[in-house]
Structures are given as structure tokens and as C-alpha cells.
Amino acid sequence: MNEQPQEPLYVSVQSDGRIEIETPDLVLVLEADGGLLSVLVFAVPRDVLLGVLRIGRDGVEVARTGEWRGTMVEWAG
């Protein structure tokens, strides 16, 4: 088995409920807003947005590099 060394994670919870998980190369941000959960992925430095995933009761939207591509997955029922 090929094991890779673990990189340290820094996890913080902001006063508005946002959760940030940082590694030396990526930052993952979880935000709840208006019934949606948004997952934002940044490259370090944090001003480089790689993609966004919005999860709601009706489905999931995916964006890449900050531009919505119209990808939508709808839940059945």
C-alpha cells in the first residue's frame, strides 16, 4: 500500500457559522445560506476560486472557476 504523509489541517468555525478547512494547498469553505449549503474550494492564495457546489433540498448545482455551467442534479420525489 502506498501511504502518503498527512498534511496538517487547520479547521475554524466563524461567528456566522461558516466552517473553513485549510491545508497548505487548498481551502474548503462550507456556508449555509437561505436553505442552501455552499461548498467553495480555493487554491492558496485564497483569492483563486477553483469551484463551487451548492446543495439544496431540490438538487445540486456545480460551478467551476466561479462560472456557473448550468450543471444541475435534481433529487427524485
Shape: globular
Q: What characterizes the major β-sheet?
A: 7 strands, antiparallel
CA radius of gyration is: 15 Å
Class from helix and strand fractions: mainly beta
Strand content: over 45%
- Unreliable stretches covering 5 or more consecutive residues: none
Features of the shown structure:
seven-stranded antiparallel β-sheet, globular, about 0% helix, about 80 residues, mainly beta
What can be said about this structure in brief?
The protein has 77 residues and is mainly β. The protein has strands at 10-13, 19-22, 26-33, 36-43, 48-55, 59-64, 67-74. It has one domain.
Structural features, described:
By secondary structure, the chain is an all-beta fold. It has strands at residues 10-13, 19-22, 26-33, 36-43, 48-55, 59-64, 67-74. It has one domain (10-74). The chain contains no helices and seven strands. It has a seven-stranded antiparallel sheet with strand order 1-2-3-4-5-6-7, with no helix packed on it. The mean pLDDT is 79.
